[in-house]
Amino acid sequence: MHEYSLVEALIGRVEAEARKRGALAVHGLSVRVGELAGVDPELFQTAYDTFRAGTICAQAPLTLRRVPASWTCSRCRAPIPRGEVLRCAACGEPARLDEGSDALTLDAVDLEVP
Ligand SMILES: [Zn+2]
Description:
Helix content is 28%, strand content 32%. It has 114 residues and is an alpha+beta fold. It has a domain of 79 residues: 2-Layer Sandwich (hypothetical protein PF0899 fold). Helix 1 crosses helix 2. The mean pLDDT is 90. It binds zinc ion. Zinc ion (ZN) binds next to loops.
C-alpha cells in the first residue's frame, strides 16, 4: 500500500537523521502531506504505528498536517483560485503548483541529543 511505503521511507529518513546527529531517542515528528499526494491520514497513522515498533521512532508520536493545494502564476506570482482555469488572468502564464503537491515533507524531528 502507498501509505506503508511512505512510512517506511519516512522512518528510514528519521533514523538516518538521528544517526547523523548521534541522537539517543526521537520524541516526535511532524510531517506535511500535500493534498494531492493521495495519502489517507488515518491509514498513514495506522501504517506508522505498525512500522515504528522496534525502530528509533517507537516512542515518537506523529503529527500529520495536510496542506491544501494552491496555485500561483509562474510569472507574476498572483494567486490563482482553485477550481478555475489554471492560467493567470493577468499575464496568461500557466499556474504553478505551490503547495499541496504530491510531496511528503518531514517538517520537524524532535531528537534527544546528548
Ligand atoms: Zn501572472
